[in-house]
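SWIM-type domain-containing protein (Sesamum radiatum), 711 aa
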Amino acid sequence: MLVQIKDDDTLSFFLDETAGFRFLEVYVETQQIQPEATPQNYQQGGYMENPEMSQQWGEYMSLFAGLFRLVRKFYTPSGCCSRPNLDTFGNLSDASSEPDEVDYPIPPEDGPNDVDINIMAENFAQGMSSSPEPVQTNRTTPQSFYRSMPFFDQTFPEIPADSIDVPTMKYAKFYNKNEGKLDVGMLFKNKVELIEAVKDHSIRHARREYYVTESSKTKWKVVCLHSTPGQVQQNPSYGIKHVIQTVKDHTGYDIPYQKAWYSLKMAREIVYGTWESSVQKLPKYMGALKKYNPGTIVEWEHKAFQPSTGAHVIGYVFWAFAPCIEGFQFCRNVISVDGTHLYTKYRHKMLIAAAMDGNQQVLPLAFAIVDDESTSSWKWFLTLLSRHVIRGRRGVCLISDRHPGIIKAVREGSDFVSPHGAHRYCLRHVCSNFNTHYKNVILKDLCWRAGSEYQIRKFNRIMEEIKSQNVAAFEFLDKINKEKWTASHDGGWRTGILTTNMSECINGVLKGARRLPLTAIVEITLARTVNYFVTRERRSHAMVANGQLWTDFAYKMFNQWHQKSIDHTVTKYNHRQQSASVVTKRQSGFGLNTHVVKITNRECSCGKWTQFGIPCSHAQKVCAAYNINAASMVKNYYDVQAYKNTYSKAFQPLYPEDYWDAPEFRLVHDTTIRISTRPGRNQTSRIHNEMDWRQTRERQQAQQRENSSRQ
């Protein structure tokens, strides 16, 4: 065993008779260093700090020999020369804490090449005589061989391994509490010392928990607890860059991208399972979901049956949580649908349906996983949505983009056609398609203004402005049915909702989950929806305790319009119909507009009352003129009680998997839709386009400057 002795405690350990060592060979190695690598005050070989050491080298060498009485001479060459394959730590992995019984060779007769150790020590001391004259001290020589010898307290201090011209030595190391670092090949006196060192290192430096996997008299094995799986479970969006940063924060090391990718992949498989095991688990999980939350809907559409394996090939799966189905009955009659990509091993897409509660917050209604957005998949999804969520409710408006599959599925028969319901287009998608053809940000902003105006006269004025700039752009919009994309011609079906942001909001919330296996995706939709219900149910109780009549959103809109109504002027026309005209106040170049209000019909020519269901400023002014309480005209879905009822049905937690019933069938992936691998990193997020840009005045000015430069 080759050991580097660096301190007095280590030296005393090897000189102790109870340690069980039969003999000890000491090798003193000196290294020449450059002056700049020598610490200050040690420029003369250490004499300024320990001038007496030159006289005591021979004494210390004699003490070594005296402690081991049986060994007085060097009989063979150094053991270092007989170990050509010595590893970095002196082959310490084969060493044992207990010395082995070895047959030592019989010392040979004295020969001409043998050198007495005392002679070596004397010659060594003579070799030091060329140094400056040592300073006389009163240090006394130890009288007993077994007393503590403060050898390292008097010698030249250790030079750091990374100093100039000082190589790193291949010796076994001992744990230093001051440094607190653990390295491969460290030696410990006993098991207790090892345990204390690991505890000290884990608490003060590594800051990692561990658990014992094996413990005996000769072995103590521990394994660090993984932190990545816990972070992945808490945050599905936890990505490769987070892994790299976490490792750097804890250890100070930068790990390669590939290593971070593999560690994240392993962590996700530990938490969520593999793609194949997850889809096999899906039927069992869905069964537990229905069992512990009665009323939850799960529908399957299989592609094929494999007789050889007895498994079904997954096609479509639809699920809707019972509390969401019940809560929709207290929301406005508008549903937004959208599709999103899943960045999984197999080609899948997720369809989402969402509603808006009385506090202008998104309520998830239904989800589905399909292989592609097509007419058949959308028709299947909308049919189940009508059957299980709408359940015969009339007057429901569906808002979507202009995906051909959705349009065709609605036309072929659904609850979203007149007279049962209505189908409207997302205004943001209309503007994006418009800009794809004409690539003019100013025209695109005019398109948005035209679609979002609630007054027909303002809509016509904006359309004329578009026509004056580009006739083809005007004709493009004029060909689209106005009731499909404009608020002014909508007739109140939208209730103020112009886009599919409801469903896309859910899409954004689930962004981190879209790269996970299928069962994990369903689990996360449940977890996020439960969080919505818990938070909003608590908020609804606070509203009731405060004595509110309406939700926070309704209060804000009502009070905002009430402040504007103070400066309006009213002219009554008919007491029976409670009709009147209202003129707004002129300010900053605006105002002096006339609006017609009919309280009996609950409508105003500005269009806002019809859309939002809250009396606008003009209607509130007329109500005050006829001594009518405007608060009674607010739609019922804004009531606090309706908001409370939306989230009154609670979710029930799922029991552990051991309590789940056996699945009714086996499920496997369709291998024909497996995404082929290619070099490089796969795309895991949609590339942003102009539809994601904000509508700002700076954009318009930049476009104008660009057009001017071209001219």
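The longest helix spans residues 518-545. The longest strand covers residues 297-306. ok done for today
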